[in-house]
UniProtKB/TrEMBL annotation:
InterPro entries: Puta_zinc/iron-chelating_dom (IPR005358). PANTHER family: PUTATIVE-RELATED, YKGJ FAMILY CYSTEINE CLUSTER PROTEIN. It comes from Pseudomonas fungipugnans. This is YkgJ family cysteine cluster protein.
Amino acid sequence: MNTTFSCVGCGKCCNDHHVPLTLAEARMWAVDGGQVIVLVEGFLSSGLGVPAQQREHAERRSVAIRSGAAQAYVAITFAAYNVGACRNLDEDNLCRIYERRPLVCRIYPMEINPHIPLNPAAKECPPESWAQGPDLIVGSEWVDRELSDLILRSRQADRDDVQTKDAICARLGIRTTALKGDGFTAYLPDMAAFAAVIDQVAEQPPSAAASEWLFHVSGEDIAGQVVAAGAQVAVEVPVNYAFISLRTA
């Protein structure tokens, strides 16, 4: 089965979407006057929080940390914070920074996570987008080589940036993560401080030593599992972040 796609310029993907950014893109976004949201999720070295088949991918884009007596991993995403229309979208639904738009914008609607198959029904693009244009996928194979190269670049940036992101978070006081699959912790740092810290960390490479984090979880049942694994659970009311639950029941 072939999957084709051609953007029709509806602008839906540029509304109410937090766009993951590379480290360089996050700095550019902050300096340009945009807001970056920091999203954090983690899992225990015991495997709690991550399906076995996804563990290799999850570890490769995460940094090893400590939480209490447990070893764990956290994945840190810097994303463009877009509530409503993206600040770079003009009145004709055209991107004002098209030539330097983020990598993920160039990749959309393809998926970056290898464990998430492309599902046109889950995208906001109108049906006509999928009824025309070049082949993206034939069978299960990517056929657009430029697009596949962009996806691989995005995955590699995740791996290359994660130690530096951890060091940036430490300087910003970001040290509470959610359990992967249970939710995210979400931070909205001051952008002047954020850009300054990125520059500071660039001048002083981060230590390879594992940092200490807490887990914010959705309920006592999850907390019991995390504590049983030796990790520490946050008990104070959040003052610098929000918890975004993924729990459905």
